[in-house]
Amino acid sequence: MFPYLVRRLLIAIPVLLGITVINFFLINLAPGNPVDMFIDPNMPAELLEARKERLGLNDPVIVQYVKWLGALLQGELGYSFSSYAPVAGLIGERIGPTLLLASASLLLGMLIAVPAGILSAVKQNTRFDYLMTGLSFIGTSIPQFFLGLSLIYIFAVQLRLLPTGGMRTLGGSGGTGDLIAHLILPVFVLGFVIAGKKVRYVRAAMLDVLKQDYLRTARAKGLHPFLVTNKHALRNALIPMITVFGSEIPLLLGGSILIEQIFQWPGIGQLTIQSVLSRDYPTLMGLNLTAACIVLTTNLLTDLLYSAADPRIRYQ
After folding, report:
1. What is the number of other CB atoms lying within 10 angstroms of the CB of residue 172?
2. Are 210 and 233 in contact (CB under 8 A)?
3. Left, alpha or beta for 20 (phi > 0: left; psi -120 to 50: alpha)?
4. For 98-143, how does the pLDDT look when each residue is reduced to its tens digit (9 = 90+)?
5. Of 10, 72, 236, 239, whose CA is between 20 and 30 Å from 89?
6. Alpha carbons 281 and 64: distance in angstroms, whole number
7. pTM of the predicted protein model
8. Cβ contact 271:94 at 8 Å
9. Distance between CA 206 and CA 204 in Å, rounded?
10. Rounded to whole angstroms, how far apart are CA atoms 294 and 291?
11. In sequence order, what are the residues at sequence separation of 6 or more whose Cβ sits closer than 8 angstroms to the Cβ of residue 61?
């Protein structure tokens, strides 16, 4: 196992390097530059040119990338062009709320999708199966912004049961209860969408396993249906489930950008939007690098879960 982990970490280095190259050139070759955001009709052209020079924007793109990479190797992500704050500090403040939102949403999606998918497979072609299939189609097809705004209107504006957005109540004492109240709506939106997409995968994986001969034999020997389904069938259906839920994490990070905007959640989604609008290149590069590290780490953990779910899988 240890040599496998070392080999995967060594492979991740050139992958990360390639991602930074592509991201850096795409960001810097886009039309416009950060100084355009500071254009004032009364500002002399010499001052704009001096600001470009100070930010290093007059250097060739390859020189800018080498400077950025050199700083990264020294543990520096640079400073924001818009707020002049350290990029590492900005991301450090925002990554926690985003990971909290993403992990809670993924957990809720799994808690809904796995039992619903298993029951849908066991009760194939029944009313329950059709109901789950219909709900999964709704979860897959409904736009996240529409669901989010609808829930805000119903539960926050009309019923006044939950806050409209944010992570803490302004002027409130805070606490766990206040945090949970702010989490409910955004987590439900993301979790419902995840569950809608994954119920069908879980159902298909379970149907494939339930038709195997060894399960027929187990039933014929009189083994309790609960044990047949949840001990023998579920264990063998875990591999495709781990794959689909592992692949959901990168999509979840992307989806949280929209949800964070709707619910004013102070995560990296809001920071990404602000950085794109202000053309804050260092912050965008830091965010892309962080997202790439999370995705690569998730892929590695998914591979390790394969081994835990199926003892036949051994990594050398």
Report:
1. 9
2. yes
3. alpha
4. 989 999 999 999 999 999 999 999 999 899 999 998 999 998 888 9
5. 10
6. 11
7. 0.84
8. yes
9. 5
10. 5
11. 24, 25, 28, 29
- The tens digit of pLDDT for each residue in 167-213 reads 888 777 778 888 999 999 999 999 999 898 889 889 998 898 888 88
One-letter amino acid for residue 242 of the chain: I
Only one residue has tokens 């040119």, namely: 49
How many whole angstroms separate alpha carbon 152 and alpha carbon 155? 6
Residues 6 or more apart whose Cβ sits within 8 Å of residue 13:
none
Per-residue CA distances from 170 to 94, 269, 282, 296 (Å): 18, 21, 31, 37
Are 309 and 242 spatial neighbours (Cβ–Cβ below 8 Å)? yes
Residue 79 backbone dihedrals phi, psi, to 5 degrees = -120, 145
- Between CA 160 and CA 152 the distance in angstroms is 9
- Tell me the pLDDT band of 38, cut-offs 50, 70 and 90: low
Angle (CA) 81 87 90, round 5°? 110
